[in-house]
Every structure is written in C-alpha cells, then in structure tokens.
Write a structure and sequence with these properties.
heterodimer, A: alpha+beta, twelve-stranded mixed sheet, four-stranded antiparallel sheet, 3 helices, 16 strands, 16% helix, B: mainly beta, five-stranded antiparallel sheet, two-stranded antiparallel ribbon, 1 helix, 7 strands, globular
Chain lengths: 213, 117
C-alpha cells in the first residue's frame, strides 16, 4: 500500500482548515463584540467554523429588554413568514463560546425581485436568548436582501444589508416596538464591496437597536 | 450601457472593489449609479456567467439578457477593468422587473424553506 508522507497530510489538513467553505464570503473586520460579561461575533457564519473566510452576513440588529428568537420571529411573522437556509452565529454567555443556528425569516422570495431575510441568534440552552445586566434579555441578528430566489433562471444575488436592516426596523416599529436606527456600534462596516458573482456587502457599522416589551 | 441607460439622468454614488469569493483576488470594480428620477430601462442587460468554483483568474464570461425593469433608482455595475467594459448590471431594491411580482412588503402564506442565502 502506498503511504502518504505525514508532512503532506499535515499540509493538506492545514489547507483544508484555511480553505473557505462553499458559499462563504470574506470579512475584513470580523471581531468579537463585548457586552458586560458576554461576547458575540459581529458576523454570522456558513458553518460552525469561525473564520474571516467563512462569514455570511454582518450583524445589523440588536433586540434588547425582553427579547428571544421565537418572540421576535412570531411578532414579525406577518411581514416575514418564510424560512431560509441555516447559518451559525457565535456567542459567549460568560461561560464559554457556542454556536447558535437558525434559518431566519424572510419575506416572500420571488424571481427577479428582492426579499428581506433576517436571522436571530441567542443562547439555545437558555430559551434562544442572552441576558446581560445592562440590556436584559437580548438577541442579535443579521440582515440581507435576496434577489431572484427560488427556481428562477439566472443568478441569485444577496447583500444590501443596510436596506434589509431598515426593513426589519421599520416593521418592528410598525408593531409598536421602540426602534433606534443605527445606534449600536458593531465595528463591521462594509462600503460597497462586491464578492464573487453575487454578494454585495453594504452596511454601516451601527446596528438597529430595538426594545422588545 | 449607454443604450440601456438611454436618456436617464444618473450620478455615481459609490465605487468599490470587486473580488473573487475564495481567494479575494481582484476581478474589477463595482460602480453604484443613482438614477434621478427613477427610470424604466429596457434592452440588453450585461449579465455575466460566473464559475462558482473560480478555477481561473477570470472566472466570468460575458452574457446578456433581455429585460425591462421599471422604477430603477439604483443600478449596480460590475466592470472588468482589463477588458474595460461592464460585465454585469443589476437594478437595485425598489425596481420592478417585467413579469415579477415586485417587492412585497407584507406577504402572507405558510412558512416554507427558500433556496437562497
């Protein structure tokens, strides 16, 4: 039997670890954000694989006070009733880092049209929410628009994160929640950057802050 | 692009780098145009074919589609700087392509998985 030298195996393994995952994009400013004794990354990921080369979308939403993932999804269901593909958020509740998973919620996907898609992340072992002394029960979220989704001809596109953030914020305000647009600094600004065929990153570094009653 | 833009009045609001997904290799430039007033654009839209595996240094090929898009206020162009031409043009949010339902703001219906990102 032909053997593979250990050096080759090590190099191959190293390359595999560094190789971007399918569908992933690159972030130039991935960084953990500190909140009291908690932390969370300012992007979500296409797998449980924290890396600047494996990001999906920037964090652009912060729901505070009495939020949970299901509570937000339920309250905004009338605007965003559809599901999407599962991605991973990475958070630390003060006892260590973990991944949370969700497909998020979106408006109706259509060919040759845009829909809004957002994903909410909390601690899955504590009711899909986080808690901090200063913010109460909180969750974070990413936002983007999708274009030409479903069984459509031609490419699908995604991004326009700031537009999608505004859409979620506007609809949160419409159901009576208090919204402060572009309030919470996330250090994840992307100014007009196009990745590959289809990903248009565009967001300021400030997430919408939404107080959930 | 001139034929597609016709008499539309536009300004450049943003430019940025266009890179490959995997290696972050420079492919060209992204140009964001703002049309004021919004216009209906009809004709041949540059719409590249992109190799998702990015096996070559230039993982895209020229392509075109026939399309009419109304209420175009933002236009996103990808420019191949080596060939000095636009390889992709996409109308931004708020535009309505012929044959599409537009941008539903308050959809209803059952939860269902979607294929996209």
């Amino acid at each position: 039997m032909r053997t593979i030298p250990l050096k080759v195996l090590l190099v191959a393994t190293f390359c595999l670890i560094l190789a971007p995952s399918a569908g992933a994009s690159t972030a130039y400013n991935l960084a953990a954000q500190r909140l009291d004794s908690d932390s969370f990354d300012n992007y979500d990921f296409v797998c449980d694989c924290v890396s600047s080369y494996n990001v999906d979308q920037p964090v652009t939403l912060f729901f505070a006070n009495n939020a949970s993932k299901d509570k937000v999804y339920s309250a905004l269901y009338g605007f965003f009733p559809y599901g999407g593909s599962t991605q991973s958020g990475r958070l630390d509740n003060g006892f260590g880092w973990f991944y949370a998973h969700t497909g998020g919620k979106k408006s109706q996907p259509s060919c040759n049209a845009f829909d809004t898609h957002y994903r909410i992340y909390g601690d899955p072992s504590h009711g899909d929410r986080m808690w901090s002394p200063s913010q109460g029960y909180y969750v974070i979220g990413t936002t983007h628009l999708d274009y030409n989704e479903g069984p459509c001809s031609g490419s699908s596109y995604y991004g326009w994160n700031e537009n999608a953030e505004s859409s979620v914020a506007t609809n949160s305000s419409a159901i009576g929640w208090s919204v402060w647009s572009n309030l919470w600094g996330m250090s994840n600004a992307n100014s007009g950057r196009w990745d590959g065929c289809c990903h248009y990153f565009n967001n300021d570094a400030n997430a919408a802050y939404i107080s959930v009653p | 692009m001139r034929a597609l833009l016709g008499s539309a009045t536009y300004s450049i609001v943003d430019t940025g780098i266009w890179t490959s997904d995997r290696k972050q290799a420079k492919l060209g430039a992204m140009v964001h145009l703002h049309l004021d007033p919004p216009a209906t654009l009809h004709g041949r839209w540059p719409r590249m074919r992109y190799d998702a595996n990015e096996q070559t240094a230039t993982p895209f090929q020229d392509g075109e589609i026939d399309q009419t898009v109304a209420s175009v206020s933002d236009l996103y162009l990808l420019v191949d700087l080596h060939a000095d031409h636009v390889v992709n043009a996409l109308a931004g949010p708020g535009s309505i392509a012929a044959g599409s339902p537009g941008n539903p703001s308050a959809p209803s219906g059952p939860t269902s998985p979607a294929a996209g990102n």
